[in-house]
Amino acid sequence: MKTGFIAAAVFFLSLPAFAASEEEIAAVTHAWIDAMNSHDPGKVTALYAADAVLWGTRSATLRDNPDAIREYFNALRSADPSYKVVLGEQHIRVYDDIAINTGSYSFSEIRDGKEVVRPSRFTFVYRNHDGRWLIVEHHSSAVPS
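Below the sequence we write its predicted structure tokens.
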């Protein structure tokens, strides 16, 4: 009995301290949604690692450095105040210091008095950097009609 307890204790103590739960990764994704809805590019880009890569929904350019990613999100400054992102489904997998969240979100805004909604899909890859989960890979694309 003692041997089983000791083996279990050794196993749990040997797990990486940065392993996250699906709930933690969902919270990091919600932080990205909240940052986008704040229309503050600085809040959004603070969620990306220095070596992050972004394929944005509305750009044909691969963004592979902090300046290029910041440039992409600077459009939030001039976005209509009605612009918002709503999170849809999520499929989260956690692998030690890497986590992947694949799912859907919708971008919307009011144009000419009507709501325009752009359903999109995403993949976020997070990596734990000194206890903080940051985006290292982000792919977003419009849902085909």
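The first strand starts at residue 48 and ends at 55.
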